Structures are given as C-alpha cells and as structure tokens.
Amino acid sequence: MDALDAIRTRQSIGKVKPDPVPRETIEKLLSAAVQAPNHYKVRPWRFVVLTGASREKLGDVLASSLKEQQPDFPPEAFDKERKKPLRAPVVIAVGVDQPLEAKVLQEENICATAAAVENLLIAAHAEGLGAKWRTGGPATDPKVKQFLGFAPDQHLIAFLYIGYPEFEPEPRERPSFEDRTVWMK
Length: 185
Ligand SMILES: Cc1cc2nc3c(=O)[nH]c(=O)nc-3n(C[C@H](O)[C@H](O)[C@H](O)COP(=O)(O)O)c2cc1C
Description:
Elements (H helix, E strand, L loop, with lengths): L2 H7 L13 H11 L11 E6 L3 H16 L5 H9 L6 E7 L9 H21 L3 E5 L7 H7 L6 E9 L22
Antiparallel strand pairs: 1-2, 2-4, 3-4
Helix pairs in contact: 1-5, 2-5, 3-4, 3-6
This protein binds flavin mononucleotide.
C-alpha cells in the first residue's frame, strides 16, 4: 500500500479481535510515529504500551475514578468502564512533554505529538491492523495520568486502541477539502 492509499483509506476501527499483536509489529508502529516533525527536535511524545493484564489495571483505575466522580451511577456503569481497555489487545496511551525551554511552545509539542499519532494510525492501517483514537474523561483524569506515569500537567492526548479488525469496514465517502480551503494568488 503506498502512502497516499494508506492515508486515503484509513478509518477508525473500533471493533477488533482479541488476538495478540506481535511486539515487532507494535515497534514498527512506534517507529513510524516518531518520524513526525517536531520543532527544535524535542521529541515531545511519550508512549505507554498496555497489553495483557496491564489493561485490566487501567480498567480498575478508570472504574474507581468514575466512581469518585459519579458515585450515584449504577454499578453497571462502573463495570462498563472497567472493561473499556479490554476492547483491544493493545492500548497505547500517548502523552506530551511539557517544554523545558522558553523557546519551546506547549502547543507545538501537542501538534508534533498529534502528528506522531497520525503516523502511527496510518502505519497500523498499512500493516492490516484496525485502530481507533480515543480520549474522553480519562484523558484529563489525574489518577489515570498517575497510573500511566505522566505528570499532572502533562497532556494525555490519546488512547490508541489497536488490533486486527473484526471485519473489514465498508469503504465510505471520505471528507473533502473544498469547503475548508481558500486559494490565494
Ligand atoms: C483528538 C481526538 C480525540 C478523539 N476521541 C475519540 C473518542 O473519545 N471516542 C471516539 O469514539 N472517537 C474519538 N476520536 C476519533 C474520531 O471520532 C474519528 O477520527 C472521526 O470520527 C473520523 O473518523 P475516521 O477516523 O474514521 O476518519 C478522536 C479523534 C481525535 C483526533
């Protein structure tokens, strides 16, 4: 698959098989991620790869956090939250370093890390994997950040759910650029 085909045909895939993904394949995706442009070459991205039982531990953190925030929710809601990280055999949490020098901007570090995430998603698609970028409440939850080893002020911009697709999604109409583009001459 060439680069343009991979970009054009990638789409979020939420339903994946529980089959494990070989470590070499995950490393290939991470290697693609870190080729992203980044200002001052600060390589601001941080990846936490969760497989196996670590996803259950993340689920426990998600459920207990939700319980703290929404104690009146029914027990099923906490069970549902606990199971979320088990939706894929690989979950990669992606954090962003805070700048250490005045010239480095936080926004630019976030941009660079988002570019790395997109590289990773395209690489996953090219490798025949399905992937979905998720965030939601857990992405800003201090307890979730702590579990993942991120500082409270570090941005957690993605949980990437990755696995072999349960089924091939129907190709769908892709967004167009026309209504978002002005040409200046
Ligand atoms: C920053 C960011 C956060 C996202 N968070 C979620 C999320 O929490 N849940 C979800 O279902 N999709 C999430 N998505 C995926 C988008 O919904 C998805 O990319 C969009 O619907 C376009 O579909 P496509 O990826 O198939 O092109 C997120 C995407 C981005 C870029």
